Amino acid sequence: MLKRYAALLLAVLVSLSLTLSGCGGTGGKIPTVKIGEVTRSVFYAPQYVALAKGFFKDEGLNVELQTTPGGDKTMTALLSGAIDVALVGAETSIYVYQQGSDDPVINFAQLTQTDGTFLVSRDEMTDFDWSKLKGSVFLGQRKGGMPQMAGEFTLKKHNIDPHQDLELIQNIEFANIAAAFASGTGQYVQLFEPQASIFEAEGKGHVVASFGTESGKLPYTVFMTKQSYIKKNQKVVQKFTNAIHKAQLWIKEHSPEETATTISPFFKDSDQAILASAVKRYLEQGSYAESPALTDSAWNNLLDIMESAGELKERVPAEKLVDNTFADSAVSSDK
């Protein structure tokens, strides 16, 4: 009987030892990271690739994704603790900083490096020129948001005063803009993909220009979190960034069609050809960042755009709100 209990005890100890050795100091629990994305768009394809290909799981993370339309709602979710990481425009971290937060929001991994919207005309045009917008009704984006600021920056670049030379509509909720245009509001609208391609396929609109090409490189969509979260979860943030960089490299090495197939579960109502067309557009204009690191030149371009829109109280140095430590490490480990 004694030998039997000794054998049983030995088995328990061995089992416990194996369990603890597999925990990596996390108490046996796989860390869960809750992401809040500002919208659902092909523009964020690398994020969906990281989820679909299991890159987060490979890093030992469980990731939960939710969509919170609008930068203000996404940031509110982050600050309240409803999510751990926000995927939103870097300008939102500046807004929080300008309010004097004791726990600033830090940008740690860039996903996209240009504006992701396109100018869609209700009428087909073979000879588009920006001057055609003068006197038109333009369905823009929310005031203070990156799409609207980049849009206004582009219009000014082409000698168009967005508040004097056209009728600018900004009072429609972000999630309802496409529906408003489809129902007859506006002659032009600023849309993300795949909505722009969907409207083309349905004959409801025609892409005539790219705000991403016009406004230059900037940290348009970035993974960010509170400084306090980074201090408590440095290994988690590093693993998260590693997965994102793997997805960035994957998209670079695969065709738009392969990417479309991979991310299709996140766009169940979209045609594969539409998704591929949208991915191709973003690849051609270099929208997907190939590195999660934010550059100083792109950050300064962001400040210029915010300053032009009258939304910047002071120019905030990148080192205040950007931490490239995790991005640099991810890139180095993949070389």
Brief rundown of the structure:
The chain has 335 residues and is an alpha/beta fold. It has helices at 2-21, 45-52, 55-58, 71-80, 91-98, 146-157, 177-182, 195-202, 211-215, 227-232, 234-253, 256-263, 272-284, 296-308, 318-321, 325-333, and strands spanning 32-37, 62-67, 85-88, 105-112, 118-121, 137-139, 167-169, 188-191, 206-210, 221-226. The protein is built from 16 helices and ten strands.
Can you describe what's shown?
This protein is 46% helix and 15% strand. With 335 residues, the protein is of the alpha/beta class. It is globular and about 55 Å long. Residues 1-27 have low confidence and may be disordered. It folds into two domains: 30-114 and 218-333, Periplasmic binding protein-like II (D-Maltodextrin-Binding Protein, domain 2), CATH 3.40.190; 118-215, D-Maltodextrin-Binding Protein, domain 2, CATH 3.40.190.10. Strand 6 (137-139), helix 6 (146-157) and strand 7 (167-169) form a beta-alpha-beta unit. The chain is built from 16 helices and ten strands. It has a five-stranded mixed beta sheet, with helices on both faces. Strands 7-6-8-5-9 form a five-stranded mixed beta sheet, with helices on both faces.
Number-wise, the strands total 10
Tally of discrete structural domains = 2
CATH superfamily of the largest domain: Periplasmic binding protein-like II
> Which spans have pLDDT < 50 for at least 5 consecutive residues?
1-27
Q: What's the Cα radius of gyration?
A: 23 Å
Distance between the termini: 58 Å
What is the N-to-C succession of helices and strands? HEHHEHEHEEEHEHEHEHEHHHHHHH
- The helicity comes to 40-55%
**CATH architecture annotation name of the largest domain:** 3-Layer(aba) Sandwich
Name the structural class: alpha/beta
